[in-house]
């Protein structure tokens, strides 16, 4: 096998780029478990790097758990076990009210700096371009002092909306700045979209399991949830949705479209188009949350469901909380034919989204560094997810099932049917470890034997120790 020379690019050490090239060959199957890797000297010659760089790259791949060294024989691709995936969910498909009392208890652990955050779906701060954003925020305040401290009524700053319109082309969405409404994160975008399309007491069709932030919004608005069967790779069952549309009064549908939280589902383009056409037939609006869309491991940004919308019935919601900064609280909605309602509601709920934050994000998107940052972030999340799955193989019972997302940074873990993950949540908390119990993700409080894991934190001995402790607690039952 011949390795092409590597040209160093800004933003990553040369040994990391060598390691990432070889990791890609392993992920694509070019290098199989048990294969002998090229010698350090051959890497030095073929990739035009120093011997010390080649050696450091192999050490990094060892740390990632992808290769191992054998005395007198060189380096080999490790055999990484792949745990089975969960099956398609089978909820009762009965509309019910939503109780989110557990969410506050779980999220309260986020405030404890000593807790290892394997529960909340938060990115590691070390992975985000905080220094650049801080510098841009300072520039915004100096150059636009009046604007940065003023109200920015709907639809928001034009500079921000222009930048978002350009980025949405990557999701195959051709929209104008005037069709975009700046919001206080994706959570507010989803909340406003639900309010614009429903009335208290209405029923909203959702995936099962479903992101608890959506369930909180449904509860706040006194809406009922109809859980639909969902496959970890294929998404919601369209046949079940069609049956529900025929038999029940459904006012809206709400989904995380790409690398969903908590399953990591990314619907195929065929299913996205079929979903849009099915809902259009019944004139049912779809609230699409695409907050993870930029985090595809293979580098190809998947299309948004909105890309297939021809009737303005898809209300697209997103933010940069998972990619740039959770704290700036900048998101947006493309509400389609519900734009007037969303703008009025935005004005009523909190008047405006911070103009300083909008302008800082717009400046970051304009300076050319976003694509490079996202490439590095994707690699980091993929590596951390692989290490988390390997730890599950090493420390959890053999019958454990785990999703295998191709993007994002969350995993869904399914244990023995009789296992109680609420009890695991309590025990793990005593060891300063947080997880998100499965019942948080279901209005009917299903999935008591499941939990969500956050892979957004850089791998470290502390994280591995937490995974080992979780495995021990699970085995002790």
Automatic annotation (TrEMBL):
PANTHER family: HTH-TYPE TRANSCRIPTIONAL REGULATORY PROTEIN GABR (PTHR46577), TRANSCRIPTIONAL REGULATORY PROTEIN (PTHR46577:SF2). PROSITE patterns: HTH_GNTR. GO terms for molecular function: transaminase activity. This is PLP-dependent aminotransferase family protein. Keywords: Aminotransferase, DNA-binding, Pyridoxal phosphate, Transcription, Transcription regulation, Transferase. In the C-terminal section; belongs to the class-I pyridoxal-phosphate-dependent aminotransferase family. Residues 12-80 form the HTH gntR-type domain. It comes from the Bacteria. It holds the Pfam family GntR. InterPro entries: Aminotransferase_I/II_large, HTH_trans_reg/aminotransferase, PyrdxlP-dep_Trfase, PyrdxlP-dep_Trfase_major, PyrdxlP-dep_Trfase_small, Tscrpt_reg_HTH_GntR, WH-like_DNA-bd_sf, WH_DNA-bd_sf.
């Amino acid at each position: 096998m011949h390795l092409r020379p590597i040209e160093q690019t800004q933003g990553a050490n040369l040994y990391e780029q060598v390691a990432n090239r070889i990791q890609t060959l392993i992920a694509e199957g070019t290098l199989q478990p048990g294969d002998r890797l090229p010698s350090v000297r051959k890497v030095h010659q073929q990739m035009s790097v120093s011997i010390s760089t080649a050696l450091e790259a192999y050490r990094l791949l060892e740390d990632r758990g992808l290769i191992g060294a054998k005395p007198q024989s060189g380096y080999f691709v490790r055999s990484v076990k792949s745990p089975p995936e969960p099956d398609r969910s089978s909820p009762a498909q009965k509309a019910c009210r939503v109780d989110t009392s557990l969410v506050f208890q779980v999220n309260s652990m986020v405030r404890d700096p000593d807790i290892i955050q394997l529960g909340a779906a938060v990115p590691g701060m070390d992975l985000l371009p905080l220094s650049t954003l801080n510098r841009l925020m300072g520039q915004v305040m100096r150059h636009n002092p009046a604007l940065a401290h003023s109200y920015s009524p709907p639809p928001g700053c034009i500079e921000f909306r222009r930048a978002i319109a350009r980025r949405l082309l990557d999701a195959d969405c051709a929209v104008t700045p005037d069709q975009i409404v700046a919001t206080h994160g994706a959570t507010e975008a989803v909340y406003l979209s639900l309010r614009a399309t429903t009335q208290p007491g209405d029923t909203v069709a959702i995936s099962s399991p479903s992101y608890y932030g959506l369930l909180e919004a449904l509860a706040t608005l006194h809406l009922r949830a109809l859980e639909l069967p969902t496959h970890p790779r294929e998404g919601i069952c369209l046949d079940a949705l069609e049956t529900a549309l025929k038999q029940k009064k459904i006012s809206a549908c709400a989904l995380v479209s790409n690398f969903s939280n908590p399953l990591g589902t990314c619907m195929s383009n065929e299913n996205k188009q079929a979903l849009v056409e099915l809902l259009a037939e019944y004139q049912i609006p779809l609230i699409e949350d695409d907050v993870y869309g930029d985090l595809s491991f293979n580098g190809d940004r998947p299309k948004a469901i909105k890309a297939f919308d021809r009737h303005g019935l898809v209300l697209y919601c997103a933010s940069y909380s998972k990619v740039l900064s959770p704290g700036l609280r900048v998101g947006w909605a493309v509400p389609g034919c519900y734009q007037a309602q969303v703008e009025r509601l935005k004005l009523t709920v909190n008047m405006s989204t911070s103009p300083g934050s909008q302008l800082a994000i717009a400046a970051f998107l304009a300076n050319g560094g976003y694509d490079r940052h996202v490439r590095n972030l994707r690699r980091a999340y993929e590596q951390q997810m692989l290490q988390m799955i390997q730890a599950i193989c090493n420390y959890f019972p053999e019958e454990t099932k785990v999703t295998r997302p191709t993007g994002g940074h969350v995993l869904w873990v399914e244990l023995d049917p009789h296992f109680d993950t609420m009890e695991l949540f309590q025990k793990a908390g005593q060891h300063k470890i947080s997880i998100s119990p499965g019942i948080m993700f279901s209005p009917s409080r299903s999935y008591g034997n499941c939990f969500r894991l956050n892979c957004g934190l850089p791998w470290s001995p502390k994280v591995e120790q937490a995974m080992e402790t979780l495995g021990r607690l699970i085995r002790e039952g």
